[in-house]
């Protein structure tokens, strides 16, 4: 079966009654089945003997249909061909804030930055995509809640594939979706029909799909996906006009994103849902040219902890599912449940366990397979957990107080040696901050930059006159200026210890020192933060 991921860019705790909705949604999505078998004990074994004759017929039919896509002739052994990744190299992307200061208040949105030189045509295509996102964002400015974010599914010297989501919230949530997949050398668009055979009967895949009971209308959901596939097969691009459906290519196959109406008790709401067609489950459907993947990689899992991947290397995809068992009468996690092809391993949760799990990521690194996920705690704090799928043991856990996690709004995890992660910090307010981290062979994370970007919609107004250093983009001090009371400050970046950078309405970036003492708490120039700014907010 194939499964869903509920990709949320809106933090529900910021909305009225959001925490209860969040918990209700979690409880509605998680199912539990505790068995006595050990999932990880079977990993060295082949699962081919359990395959039904019906499944074999499906595979045979799909393989025959895929000849049109791969260009193979009858009688060729498509399993014999090796995929060469010897010249593979990752490309580096960042997500950075774009500050537009000709409005009141200023508009801040996220944009993509290609860090590599020598890819001029690709850089032009990325700029075009950024401008598309910017235009939409400006057209929708002024909404009560407004945020955008990206998933980069693949970024290397062969293919770059990116998904963009823009969220609006007034009385209800609205979503604008877009995506692009480029040839890295030429910068030209790659069509879905170039990657996957669109002539076969997709009902076969839909029949494998577990339409969660929380989806109000599975037929409408399926229709959106089928419309995209039909338009792609006919060479049309009209589906992009409604901003409701998009797709990307990752290191585990195609992901299709669309808006579906979900239910939680008596509540109905729209949400972006991810539909995956993994290589490991349907290899015969793909053009082998696009199945190249490195020895180390990562991908977003298209469900609440459920996906397909060949973790034991026997050539057959395992169905992997992670869920959590909740203590009766409480919201806290009691056990983690790992299900691999129906075989179960349970791990008892510790004293610091949270109340839900989400944002599931697969990482292939150092010949090991990891399942990484966020666990929600108090005050919307997150802890990153990391499960070794071949031993069914936690590989590494960040300290709960550090709140190391995957960001809510952007996902750059395709390269384990350069992953975008977030922390929750308490300085001049409570901020989510993001930075690039390297996953190491000792199963720890190394911070690659000294400065963190602040992920926040907070805006401060100064209560007193201040002096601040104006700094350049690289942190060089340009001048010292006087700033009068009543000035607007937009928190921008911080080292989480000694300073915070802010944008002013005129576009300049200023740096204010910060400190802490037991008598006054966090301070700016030795003055308590609450005496310096209006708009200060601390979680809890």
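Q: What amino acid sequence fits the structure above?
A:
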């Amino acid at each position: 079966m194939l499964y869903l991921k509920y990709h949320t860019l809106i933090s529900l705790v910021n909305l009225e009654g959001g925490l209860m909705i969040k918990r209700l949604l979690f409880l509605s999505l998680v199912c539990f089945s505790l068995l006595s078998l050990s999932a990880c004990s079977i990993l060295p074994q082949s699962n081919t003997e359990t395959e039904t004759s019906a499944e074999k017929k499906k595979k045979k039919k799909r393989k025959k249909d895929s000849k049109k896509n791969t260009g193979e002739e009858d009688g060729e052994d498509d399993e014999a061909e090796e995929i060469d990744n010897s010249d593979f190299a990752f490309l580096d992307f960042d997500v950075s804030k774009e500050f537009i200061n000709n409005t009141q208040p200023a508009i801040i949105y996220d944009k993509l930055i290609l860090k590599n030189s020598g890819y001029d045509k690709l850089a032009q295509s990325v700029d075009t995509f950024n401008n598309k996102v910017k235009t939409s964002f400006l057209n929708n400015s002024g909404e009560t809640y407004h945020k955008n974010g990206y998933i980069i599914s693949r970024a290397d010297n062969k293919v770059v594939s990116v998904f963009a989501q823009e969220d609006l919230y007034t009385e209800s949530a609205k979503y604008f979706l877009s995506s692009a997949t480029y040839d890295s050398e030429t910068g030209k668009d790659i069509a879905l029909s170039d990657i996957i055979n669109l002539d076969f009967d997709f009902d076969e895949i839909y029949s494998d799909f577990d339409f969660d009971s929380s989806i109000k209308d599975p037929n409408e959901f399926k229709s959106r996906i089928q419309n995209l596939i039909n338009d792609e097969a006919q060479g049309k691009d009209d589906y992009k006009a409604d901003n409701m459906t998009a797709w990307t290519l990752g290191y585990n196959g195609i992901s299709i994103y669309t808006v579906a109406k979900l239910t939680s008790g008596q509540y109905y709401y729209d949400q972006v849902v991810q539909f995956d067609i993994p290589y490991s489950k349907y290899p015969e459907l793909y053009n082998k040219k696009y199945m190249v993947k490195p020895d180390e990689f990562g991908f977003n899992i298209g469900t609440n902890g459920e996906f397909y991947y060949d973790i034991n290397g026997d050539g057959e995809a395992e169905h992997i599912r992670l869920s959590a068992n909740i203590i009766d009468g409480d919201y806290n996690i009691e056990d983690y449940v790992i299900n691999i092809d129906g075989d179960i391993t349970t791990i008892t949760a510790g004293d610091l366990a949270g109340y839900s799990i989400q944002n599931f990521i697969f990482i292939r690194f150092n010949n090991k397979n990891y399942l990484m996920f966020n666990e929600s705690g108090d005050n919307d704090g997150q802890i990153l957990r990391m499960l070794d799928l071949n031993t069914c043991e936690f590989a590494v856990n960040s300290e709960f107080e550090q709140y190391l996690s995957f960001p809510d709004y952007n996902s750059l995890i395709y390269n384990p040696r350069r992953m975008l992660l977030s922390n929750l910090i308490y300085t001049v307010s409570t901020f989510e901050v993001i930075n690039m981290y390297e996953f190491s062979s000792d199963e720890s994370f190394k911070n690659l930059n000294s400065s963190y970007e602040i992920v926040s919609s907070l805006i401060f107004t100064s209560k007193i006159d201040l002096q601040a250093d104006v700094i350049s983009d690289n942190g060089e001090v340009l001048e010292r200026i006087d700033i009068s009371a009543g000035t607007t400050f937009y928190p921008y970046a911080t080292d989480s210890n000694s300073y915070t950078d802010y944008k002013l309405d005129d576009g300049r970036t200023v740096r204010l020192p910060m400190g802490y003492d037991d008598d006054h708490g966090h301070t700016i120039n030795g003055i308590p933060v609450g005496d310096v700014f209006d708009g200060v907010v601390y979680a809890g």
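Q: And what stands out in the fold?
A: Residues 120-139 form the longest helix (20 residues).
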